[in-house]
Input
Amino acid sequence: MVMIEGYGGRDFEKGPESYTSKKFFDIIFDATGLGNFRGKAIVVDFMSGPGLVALAMRERSPQHAYTVLDASQKLLDQLKAKETAIGTICADVRDLSSAIEDESIDVAVVRYALKDIPKGQQAGVLSGIFKKLKPGGVLVIADMFSPEGAKEFTNKQHSR
Output
């Protein structure tokens, strides 16, 4: 269970524009339905690195509880350094069995994460996340794919 080379060393502030684009974050937020959610939602941002998606969603809808899950403690520490009220879980998204209770999440967001997981494990990851959603929960996926032969180039670009 190895992530792509350079995963934990990724610099989200210097990555592609979509890593920090407010417009892209707004699209993700709208897809979650959090603006119309009644009560306090439990939101988990899977493989978020330093929590940029969770931070953007909390800015628009601060009444909800946000948690970032990532396999890189280094990236999670960047979020902790910002002294936010966002929780962190250091875990591999491919093994969520003990990291999160089943059916405890209202909204799950997976942005630019599936491409970092070997193709043969992607369906298992999505199934594992789905099992953690409450009945009626929302899973938002914002990802990319590379045509055959371009995947290594794309992954290296996004790992910088």
The longest helix spans residues 119-132.
